[in-house]
Amino acid sequence: MRIILLLFGLLLVLLTWSTAYSQELNPGDGVRIIFFNITDEISGDYFVQQDGNIQMPYIGLVAVENRKFENIKTEIISKYDSLYRDPELTVQPLYKINITGEVRTPGIYYVTGIEKLMDIIALAGGETSDADLDDIYIIREDEEIKVNAEQLMKNGDKIGDIGLKSGDRIFVPRQWWVSARNAGIIISGAALVVTIISLFFLK
Question: Which residue of 31, 34, 95, 99 has the lowest C-beta tally within 10 Å?
Fold first, then answer.
């Protein structure tokens, strides 16, 4: 039984990584390379230019347009392997996403595709006290994909499991009772203004 569980867990990891690594990189996305046995200062983040290329140290331009990341990764590793003797390195994708709504620091962030949803929200400073984590939305062009973050946290799913893609926008909405409370305040304020005006004209 233990072996079966281990194999099942390994399969889930491989599926998550294959989902993230089968995506294409768009201009503004990038790659993160980390060397473990090279003293040259090469490790870092490198981004796709508008011409569809990444300028990598020592190996020059790497074309990424219309190519899956797994193929790009293979090329980068192969080129550094021909430059150094037995280099130990990791190459990860960096997909650009926009996190908006009830988070403390909305904005553009980069993810590798293997983070959990709450890890991404943490990048934006975490959710506010008014956030509704039951109904988070992934907005992709004109499409809205509803995501239950609480359920994802319970299952331990990663963003690759929910199909997050480069350029997506994650929107964390406000809890309905907060909006209702604010609306009530506005209505009460408007009623007070009307009352004051009415009293003024009655005089």
Answer: 34
39, part of any domain: yes
pLDDT of residue 100: 96
Contact 59, 71 (CB under 8 A): no
The pair of three-digit structure tokens given for residue 143, joined into one six-digit string: 């499409």
Q: Answer yes or no: is 169 within a domain.
A: no
pLDDT category at 137 given cuts 50, 70, 90 is very high
Asked if 131 and 102 count as a contact pair (C-beta separation under 8 A), the reply is yes
Q: How far apart are the first and last CA of the chain?
A: 86
CATH of the domain at 51: 3.30.1950.10
pLDDT interval class at 83 (50, 70, 90): very high
Check if the beta carbon of residue 112 is closer than 8 Å to that of residue 32: yes
**Count of structural domains, the chain:** 1
Place of tokens 């350029």: 167
User: Are the CB atoms for 23 and 67 separated by under 8 Å?
Assistant: no
Domain coverage including residue 72: 24-93
Q: Is residue 100 part of a domain?
A: no
- CA atoms lying within 13 Å on the CB side of residue 141: 1
Could you tell me if 172 and 127 are in contact, meaning their C-beta atoms sit under 8 angstroms apart? yes
